[in-house]
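Sequence only, no structure available. Ideas?
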Amino acid sequence: SNTDDQVYPGPGNISQDPLFFQPWDGTSADYRLPCESPSVDSGTADGAPTVDITSGHRPRGGGFDMGAYENCPFDLNFDHAETGEDLLLFPSEWYEEVTIDNKRFDFVTGPSMPNRIDSSDLIEILENSR
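Reply:
I predicted one. Tokens follow.
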């Protein structure tokens, strides 16, 4: 992202504020992207890993997000907003085995029921939705 008026030639740069949750303030930062960020779905698949820094599946939505985090994990209908409409999609996949088509729902792969869409995933959605 080119937000400091410097010129960084080459592909993969944008000239818009990526809207990080908390840019570097001299002490800490949170470089996750909100759903409305211009960096969401603006990355490239070239050389991109299949999981983000949190082991979340990539891509989610229309394309890879720029940066280390594939964001909007609860934007299940891929409209760049995390709303109640997303939660309505969840029941149709309840307790199904995770496949390439429904992997976006399997947020928790811990001991409760790995590779199954279950209550742990629902709790994760409810605790992290805004």
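The chain has two helices and no strands.
Hope that gets you unstuck.
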